[in-house]
Specification:
With about 625 residues, the chain is α/β, with parallel strands linked by helices. The chain is built from 20 helices and 22 strands. The strands form five sheets. Strands 15-14-11-10-9-8-17 form a seven-stranded mixed β-sheet. A six-stranded mixed β-sheet has the order 5-4-3-2-1-16. The model has no long low-confidence stretch (mean pLDDT about 95). Catalyzes the ATP-dependent amidation of deamido-NAD to form NAD. Uses L-glutamine as a nitrogen source.
Amino acid sequence: MRLVKLGLASVNTTVGSFTRNTDKALALAGKMAAEGVTLGVFQEQLIAGYPAEDMVQWQGFMDRQWPELERFARETAPLPTVFVVGVGVAHQGLRLNCAAVVAGGRILGLVPKEKLPTYSVFYEARTFGRGQPGMAEVHRGVPLGDYLFHFDFGVVSPEVCEDIWSADGPMRRRTYSGAELVVNLSASPFRLGFVETRRELIATRAADHQCTIAYCNAVGSNDGLIFDGGGFLNQNGRHVMETPRFQEGYAAAVVDLDRTLRLRAEATTWRVDRESWLAQGGQAVPVLDCTQVVHTKRDALTYPVPPHRSFFLPSPDTRRTARDALCEDILDALSLGVGDYFEKTRAFKVLGIALSGGRDSLLTLLIAHRYAKRARPENPGSLIQAFYMPSRYSSDATRDAAETIARELGVAFQVVSIDEAFEREREVAKTMLGGKDVTPITEQNIQARLRAQRMWNWSNSCGGLFLQTGNMSEKSVGYTTIGGDLMGALAVIANVPKTVVMYLLDYLQDTTGYEGIRKVLAKPAGPELAHDQVGEEELMPFPILDACFYLYGSEKLTPAEILQALTAMFPEVAASRLSGYVEKFVRLFQQSIYKWVQSPLSLHIGNLDLDRERALQLPVVTGTEWMRQG
């Protein structure tokens, strides 16, 4: 047997905090070595933090990473462990996103990322250069290129993130060249349900290429992107280990690399494919001999014992229900996003929320409180300040709901009426209009803007992080006010559809029993900027609105195609009414792009959202003739 203990680490990095990021990695490296880890894996762009975006254009930003990589090598020199860490290098006019192999106090090699994504939230090909098959160069005296690394325990193939997502990635030629252990360094953002996709992909790649895969992922949040960690260890298609998500740290497990080679020998299809690759001119990837650089200590490793000490019985079922998994993942991700933004910017002392007594601000408060319970477990409410700013249209029911949940959470709650200011601003607006009355919409917007102005004044004076509370569905159709409820320093649920907001609140009501949630849910959703406002009456039923948004924004369907899909989804609704909803949605969506491009930084939890710099990039000024049939 050739037993190897593999450690997968997730470090919560901050972009540009090179020393602090490296210090965190060194602390985990020491713990791994103390626990007998043979090879420790750290995430993509460990030293720089991710995503650095255009910061990589600064030569100093790139050059400053190398001394930290050297320090990591120097300080881990006494450890009998091999480490693979993510680093950026500036090489002959290129910026390369690399996996660095470190052992025995030396940087043994750099393997650059080959596949650079430019879809969804990624812009890597805009700034980074690509590694190439057969690349063999030298950077600061270190081999840089398409290499494998032979240690006393086996042959290692480092790669970076997107390389594993391509069927034409480097894994194929490297395993055909003798790689037994593929080490993938990733910074893969959290997306709803994506953990299952990762798990399945890694199992498929490990089976296809008959290898062991150690997949490491970043954790934490930077600039609205949330990373959930969750590394995987898979041997030839068999799941071995999954590391905890949404938390910094590492986990380790033992595998027998002789088993990988045995299974490879048994896989006749793999062998035939390899023979075909060689016959067609496939070039073997060079192997760097590192066997004398470090002598790993594996004598104390023991064979991994299966659950129940049986190879035939199943492992304990720890899977969550679909509802628990969805809700807990969203809540964990968003609370991590709020907390990391609050802490890493180092500009704020307290979290502030304009609590309306409605669903959106309630969910935002509960997410902020979830973070506060982790940051200040002894008194989480002390980290949050809630304000209720009623006008003449605010109901006693919403005030009672807001007051109740603030009391249950131990959050400071202050009532500050805007009614007198609303009257003054309305009169000023009438004067500016030459005595004409303002429109009903203007009356509503005055209230929203007064609340936002007061939140900004509070924020400026006390160092408070003003959390914006709007949801994605209403934002998509402009059911929000520029300078008002669209504003804030961080948009917490701006990429959460309204139907999901309500689903989460139902879940939280069931799991927490808060009376404040029950009181909010007892009243129809509406902004209370006019008498008896109900959001679904002014827009459309939220399930239909969310379906329109998904079909248009994600599936890229035309209005006619959307109507066809909605007819199948909602047969109880008359076709003529559905047609009106589709026409209304598309019109409002196109007219509202100018609004949502002005919204604050938002937290991302899926592939579809309204942050123009991240995902759905649409021109503000555009015609709609292309949508018409015939």
